[in-house]
Amino acid sequence: MLLLAFIIGGYVAGRLASRSGLKHGFLVPVLMVVVTIVLAGVGALLGGLSFLDNLSGVTLPSTPNDALRTWARSSPVRASPPC
């Protein structure tokens, strides 16, 4: 899916850039890789695993029925039984 987004984004950037379309179309995925590396570096410097450590107390439903019951209990709208 991400590859498709790069292809479409590169095509659009190339079409809008007219004369330097090849350069702009190529720079779309290159810029995304650079931004990803920079953000990964910032995350590593700020303690990348601390967010995952905070999720240890979160419990998830084990079956779809558990998820439905949890949602029904937390929903502000109560369904009345059928007549």
Give a written overview of the molecule.
- The chain is mostly helical and 83 residues long.
- The chain is built from four helices and no strands.
- Helix 1 (2-16) crosses helix 2.
- The mean pLDDT is 75.
- Helix content is 67%, strand content 0%.
Q: What topology does this entry show?
A:
Elements: H1 2-16, H2 21-45, H3 50-54, H4 64-74
Helix pairs in contact: 1-2
Order of helices and strands: HHHH
Number of helices: 4
Dominant shape = elongated
Taken as a percent bin, the fraction of beta residues is: under 5%
How large is the radius of gyration? 23 Å
Q: Mean pLDDT, as a whole number?
A: 75
Which oligomeric form is depicted?
A: single chain
In whole angstroms, the N-to-C terminal distance is: 47 Å
Overall strand count: 0
Residue stretches low in confidence (pLDDT < 50, at least 5 long) are: none
TL;DR?
With 83 residues, the protein is mainly α.
Structural features:
0% strand; mainly alpha; 83 residues
